[in-house]
Amino acid sequence: MLDLPIGKRIILFDGLCNLCEASVQFVIKHDNSDQFRFVALQSDLGQKIIAHIGINSKNIDSVLLYEPGVAYYYKSNAALQVAKNLGGLFHLGTVFRIIPTTLRNALYDYVAKNRYSWYGKKQSCMIPTEELKSKFL
Fold first, then answer.
1. pLDDT at 81
2. CA-CA distance, 70 to 34, in Å (whole number)?
3. Which of 21, 17, 25 shows the shortest CA–CA distance to 112?
4. Other C-beta atoms within 10 Å of 87: how many?
5. What is the pLDDT of residues 63-80, one digit of tens each?
6. Cα 29–132–32 angle (5° rounding)?
7. C-alpha angle 121/122/127, rounded to 5°?
8. 64: helix, coil or strand?
9. Rounded CA separation 25/100 (Å)
10. What mean pLDDT comes out for the span 115-130?
């Protein structure tokens, strides 16, 4: 059994990826209802969550949204679900659901494959500031 916060959506992200870190910072800034928590895929907890869900960690290379006891989403579906849950104008991003998942994920995979060369890679996972520590598990 995982000890996760009740009523929070968990975003698992690549803690070494600059694009992923920027995305996490974006979500934190716009998460007005404090519904998201963050875990690096490379962390022990990240690996436990992936195992708990039953996903082969080789199939997850950049983002996963886990709603404990409800569902999980990955690739483009995770990004669209995060946009939906942020609400406001971000909810309009869900219009991309009209594009077939295979096409959305092909584009997603292309960006994921090239994210380190385009945006860079850290030597270690980000360390949150004191103000943001409560957002990370």
1. 94
2. 18
3. 17
4. 13
5. 899 999 899 998 999 999
6. 35
7. 140
8. strand
9. 28
10. 78
> Which two structure tokens, joined as six digits, stand for 81?
């679900």
Amino acid at 97: R
Helix (H, G, I), strand (E, B) or coil at 66: strand
Using only C-alpha atoms, the chain has a radius of gyration, in whole angstroms, of: 14
Q: Tell me how far apart the alpha carbons of residues 37 and 28 are, in angstroms, rounded to a whole number.
A: 9
Cα 49 to Cα 18: distance, rounded to the nearest angstrom: 22
| Chain position carrying tokens 């907890």 | 45
Q: How many CB atoms lie within 10 A of CB 124?
A: 9
- What span, in angstroms and rounded, lies between the C-alpha atoms of 80 and 94? 6
Task: Calculate the CA 94 to chain-centre distance.
Answer: 16
What pLDDT band is residue 126 in, cutting at 50, 70 and 90? Answer: low
Please name every residue paired with 136 in a beta bridge, in sequence order, or none if there are none: 38
